[in-house]
Amino acid sequence: MADWDLKKLRILRTLHELGTVTATAEALHMTPSAVSQQLTGLAKALGVTLLEAHGRRVRPTDAAELVLRHAEAVFAQLERADAELLGYLQGEAGQVRVGAFSTAIPALVVPAVQELRRTHPGLSVVVREAEAEAAYELLAEGSVDLALSLAAHAPTPRDPKFSRVALLADPLDVALPAGHRLAAEPGLRLADLAGEPWIFGSSGPWSQITTAACENAGFLPERAHAAADWSAIWAMVAAGMGVALVPRMARAGGIGAFGRGGGAPAGHGGREGVALRVLSGDQPRRHVIAAARRGSEGAPGLARVLAALRQAAATQPPGE
């Protein structure tokens, strides 16, 4: 039987993900020569060639791809073993580390933590703010146990390393200056704002979400101002500088006294002048998911945190 060395298999998996021996060595806190020696030893033990030259890089052979498919199943099974052992040893106690994007923390994570403090006081939840790419890097390396992100910026459901759980379809409302000609327009649709100056980030998830929502409504938004901070966006809308899509979850982050209806202005930090409108005809949404390393989702503490997050998601304002 071949010698399936788990440490060496993890090195091979990391190389497959990062593409170079140097990057693998840095990620695993090893020297490049040590990485090469470990992979050479694994190839010898398995009796196959695992890597082949590809320009200045190396890439896994077909044999390596076969090995990695089976290794992923082994790693998932080991995660399940860890989860069962954790349940046996800690029961109600333990720690779950959560990486989440900014608006998810006040809207979902904080209410979940508050509920768990009441129902499972021995379970500690440690929160770390991180956008999607960083959150999944932290999840993959074991620095967090659960990552909250937008579905559009998460690994695909077919990624063997992660299990995904849908949490929420977060409606997007539109913020207009209170005196805007459409602030009290009945049946306002996103397409009605095609000619307006828009405020959204110059890059990243929110830029892509705003652009995609507007394209689905039949137009490409003209970005007049770039901002990613909700306070900045809210202030610019209030000043009459443009319009913006606002996720309903952001209400939990302290953005204004959000109204649900016509043209009444909503305040923000003592500032008046914003009308928040529900786009009832074509309500755009962003989808929020939680992800865990595949096989670990059965750990009692992690399962309790997921349940609390689902409960928090269920209390969010619904779409109309």
Task: Tell me about this structure.
With 320 residues, this protein is α/β, with parallel strands linked by helices. The chain is built from nine helices and twelve strands. The protein has helices at residues 6-18, 21-28, 32-46, 62-90, 104-119, 132-141, 205-216, 230-238, 300-314; strands at 51-54, 57-60, 94-100, 123-129, 146-150, 162-177, 197-199, 222-225, 244-247, 265-268, 271-277, 285-293. The strands form three sheets. Strands 3, 4, 5, 6, 9, 10, 11 and 12 form an eight-stranded mixed beta sheet that branches. A two-stranded antiparallel ribbon has the order 1-2. Helix 7 links the parallel strand 7 (197-199) and strand 8 (222-225). The longest helix has 29 residues, at 62-90. The relative contact order is 0.15. Mean pLDDT is 86; it is low at 256-271.
Distance between the termini: 61 Å
The helix/strand class is alpha/beta
Shape: globular
Rg over alpha carbons: 24 Å
Number of helices: 9
Low-confidence stretches: 256-271
- Give the topology string: H per helix, E per strand: HHHEEHEHEHEEEHEHEEEEH
Instruction: Please provide the count of β strands.
Output: 12
Instruction: Calculate the mean pLDDT score and round it.
Output: 86
Report a brief summary of the structure.
The protein is of the alpha/beta class.
Write the layout of secondary structure elements.
Layout: H1 6-18, H2 21-28, H3 32-46, E1 51-54, E2 57-60, H4 62-90, E3 94-100, H5 104-119, E4 123-129, H6 132-141, E5 146-150, E6 162-177, E7 197-199, H7 205-216, E8 222-225, H8 230-238, E9 244-247, E10 265-268, E11 271-277, E12 285-293, H9 300-314
Parallel strand pairs: 3-4, 3-5, 7-8
Antiparallel strand pairs: 1-2, 5-12, 6-9, 6-11, 6-12, 10-11
